[in-house]
């Protein structure tokens, strides 16, 4: 089992994200997962730097820690040809440490191109085509592709690594689980749902299974929950809502009724190691093996010290 640290580009500026990445490597995390947004979830988060620029700097300033997008939508804001090139370059400059995490996207980030926001079934078909284009370009040579939604015309990625990056597909239901099993190299989820793992394995998926684990470290459970309520109450809306709302102000309205008890129910809040182990265990028991620890608390450095000195020894 491996443990990752979530870099939230919506919550911190680009230089702070890079600093946290270096600190996470020093704290003993196995890999980093970085969000890929155009907007923050809420206005008061206040940030949303360009993930691919940040990743390049992180690769240059770290040595061993794995790097992963969590996740990139390669269908609207980005054409899949651009992501094929970007991921290949990241694999080269990180000496093979990069994993491409992909998903069908959120309205929050993808509507900005003015092309509308398709229904979920259309987004899944678009994602299939995007992955086919990425795989095609990674074969080398000039390639073209004519899909229902996406096209490619006489394109070649010239700098390809000897070992291509893994593609891990985010899934919240069985339609995206199928895409992960058929076109991906791994599965990503945000809930401890065993049926996602079972569906993935049942469809022939044999790659690593990733999940984001909701934690919030602070000196007290109340302080930790307050930090989540201030900056991340949108978690309680659930993925069917999170994928559909177009702007931070919509998420603010949708999460206005979230209370401390809602946070405490889902997040491991405070300094209690046993509670953190309990929440992590829910994902382990559901069949996930690569766990991304997402700290919603107010003190990133305190969380990393907590992980290194108290949590990691117990997890080992």
UniProtKB/TrEMBL annotation:
Residues 3-198 form the Luciferase-like domain. It comes from the Bacteria. Keywords: Oxidoreductase. It holds the Pfam family Bac_luciferase. CDD domains: Tetrahydromethanopterin_reductase. Coiled coil: none annotated. This is TIGR03557 family F420-dependent LLM class oxidoreductase. It comes from Gryllotalpicola daejeonensis.
